[in-house]
Amino acid sequence: EPDMVAEFEAANNVKFKPKYYAGGDNMMALISQSPPGTYDVILSDGEFVQQLNAAGYVEELNAADYPLDDVVYDDFKQFPGHWKDGKLYGMIFRTGHLGVSYNSEKISAEEAASYDVFWKPEAKGKVGHFDWHLPNLGMMSLKNGNGAKLWDVDDAGWKAIQETTMSLKPQVGGYFDYNGTFSGLKNGEMWLMCGIGDWITGVLQRDGAKVASVVPKQGGIQFTESWSIGKGTQKADIAKKFIQYMASPEGQVHGAKMAAYPGFCVTKKGMALLNEKDPKEAQRTGQYDGAPNH
Fold first, then answer.
1. What is the mean pLDDT of the chain?
2. How far is CA 203 from CA 103, 213, 246, 263, 281, in A?
3. DSSP 8-state code for residue 218
4. Environment class of residue 189 by beta-carbon count within 10 Å: exposed (0-12), middle (13-18) or buried (19+)?
C-alpha cells in the first residue's frame, strides 16, 4: 500500500506490483503455481518462512545486511523458522499480540482480562471467531491453563482443548474472514472476537469505534511478520534494499502505523522513532520502555 512503499518507490525509481493473499496456505498455493522469479519480495507470518524455505521458494539472506543486533528481544535474533542450519531466510519485520478483542460498551476491561468472558451468558450469539484455526485453538489451550506450553500438549491435553472449543459453540454468532471480522465488531453485531488482537481493533479505534484488545491473565499469542526474497528473482539487489528499508527506523514506524492493520516495531531504534514521531500511538500500543508489552 502507498503508506508503506511510496517513499521507497520515489527514492529508488521503482514501482511495486502487489499480489494479495489471505492466509499463509493461500500464499503457498499461489507461489507454487508461479514460475521462479515471479515474486521479488514476500511478506509472510513467521511460521510460514520455514515452509517457504522447505519448498525452495526463498533465497538465503546475509544476516550481516540487517540490524539483528538492534531487535527488541534477544530471541528475535535467532527466531525459530527464520533460520535453518545457521542460514537466514526471513528478516523479522513486525510483531503483535492476540488475545481478547471486545466491544468496550458491552464488555468491561475487567471481564476481558480472562478468556472466560467468551462464555458470558449475556454474550450468547455475540462471540465471533476469526476463521483461522491456529490462534483460536491456541486461545482455548491458554484458557485451559497450558501457558507457554500451549502448542505442546499430549493426547489428553489435545482432547481437553477440543472439548473447551466445542463448549464455546453455543456462544458463537459466526466465523469471519478479515472483512467480516472488521464489520462484525464495527457495527456491534459481535461483542467479542476470538483469534485476533489490536491488528484489527487498532484500525477500528482510529475511526472512533468503541473496541479494544487485551492480553488476558492466562496469556496471549504473539504473531510475527517477516520479509523474504523470492527464489529466482532478477531484482535481488533492490529487494534487499527494500527489506533493509523496512528494518530501518523509518520503515519500522511505517510498519507500526500501517493503514491496513497496525503492529509493533521489532527494533529499538524503530520504537524510539515511533515515540518521537507519534507518541500517542506508542502509548496506545504500549511501545515504550516500561510498558507491559516490554
1. 94
2. 14, 11, 21, 10, 12
3. T
4. middle
Closest CA to 29 of 2, 48, 5: 48
pLDDT of residue 39: 96
Amino acid identity, residue 82? H
What does the pLDDT read at residue 171?
Answer: 98
220: nearest Cα among 147, 289, 117: 147
* pLDDT mean over 141-163: 97
Report how far residue 197's alpha carbon sits from residue 72's, in angstroms, rounded to the nearest whole number. 20
Residues 186-199 have a mean pLDDT of 95
- Between CA 117 and CA 216 the distance in angstroms is 10
Provide the 3-class DSSP secondary structure of residue 155: helix
Per-residue confidence (pLDDT) for residue 289, from 0 to 100? 84
| 212-226: b (≥16 Cβ within 10 Å) or e | bbbbbebbbbebbbb
In DSSP terms, which residues pair with 166 in a beta bridge? Answer: none
Evaluate if residue 81 carries a pLDDT over 80: yes
Give the largest CA-CA distance in the chain: 57
Q: Are 90 and 61 in contact (CB under 8 A)?
A: yes
Whole-model pTM: value is 0.89
Residues 6+ positions from 229 with CB-CB distance below 8 Å: 40, 41, 42, 58, 59, 61, 236, 239, 240, 243
pLDDT score of 26? 87
CB 226 within 8 A of CB 91: yes
Best CA proximity match to 164, nearest among 184, 177, 181, 145 = 145
